Amino acid sequence: MQVVVITGLAQGMGREVALKVAAAGDVVAGFDVDSKGVESLRAELQAKGCDALLTTLDVCDRPGILAFRDEVLSKYRRVDTVLSNVGIGFFGPFEEVDLEKANRCLEINVIGPAAIFQAFVPGMRERRSGKLVAVSSLVGQVPFPFESIYSASKFALEGMVLSLRYELEPFAIQVALIQPAQVSTSFAAKIHTLPPEGSPYRERVRRFIARDEELIKGAIDPSTAAERIFGVVAAARPKLHNPIDAQSRLFLALNRFLPRRVRDEILLRQMDIR
Length: 274
Description:
Helix content is 52%, strand content 12%. It is of the alpha/beta class. A seven-stranded parallel β-sheet has the order 3-2-1-4-5-6-7, with helices on both faces. Strand 5 (130-135), helix 5 (148-168) and strand 6 form a beta-alpha-beta unit.
C-alpha cells in the first residue's frame, strides 16, 4: 500500500488520479484551493470507504504546506509518492502581458511544486525510498507562441526536476515528469482571451485560439489521462519523461530530431498562425 500525496485534486486530472489511487487500495492525502471540490471528493472517497486526508490549502502558503506535511506524517508515518498536479495557465502576447499576474503563474507553477517536494524530501531521504512526480506540459520542451509565461513556468519546472534528480538518486528517490499536450478540460478555455481591438497580435491570436479549441475537442479525456498518470504513480521505477497522449509524443519526438527551421514550420502551420 502506498501513501500518495496529490496537489490540485479538487477537479480534472488530479481528482481522477486521486480516485484511481484510492480504488487501488492506496492512501490519498492532498489539497486544493477549491474548498467545494475538496469537500465533494472527501465525501465521495468516504462513501467508498477509502482512507484519505484532504484539506483546503493554497500551494503558495508555505507554512500551510509544512503543517500539512506534519499532519500527513503524523497520521501515516511516511509518504511514498508526491504528485505535484497543481498549476494554472497563462495566455497572451508577451508584449501585452501583465507581469504581476505572470509572477503569480510562476509562483504557482514552479515554486509551488518546489515547496511540496521540499517538504517531503527529508522523510524520503531518511527512508531511502520515494517518488516525486511533476505534471509538466508539452510546452515545457516545445514553446508555443502566446504562451510565453506558461512555457517559461514549465521549462523551469522541468529544469528543476532534472536537476534535483542528480541530488536525490543517491538516496533512492526517483523523479518523473508527466508531459501532456492537451486534455479535454476547460483549462485552456479559461485563459483564452483575445487582445483588445487595435492590438497588432489580435488576428493571429484569434486563429491560434480557434485552432487550439478545435484540437482540444479531439484530445484525451481527463479519465484516460489520469489512468496514464496513475501508471506512473504506481510504477516501481517510472520513466523520467512521460508524454501521455499522441500529440505530445509526436511533438516531443519531432523536437528531438528535426532541424529548428522545420520544427518551426510544422508548429506555425499546426496552429494556423504562419
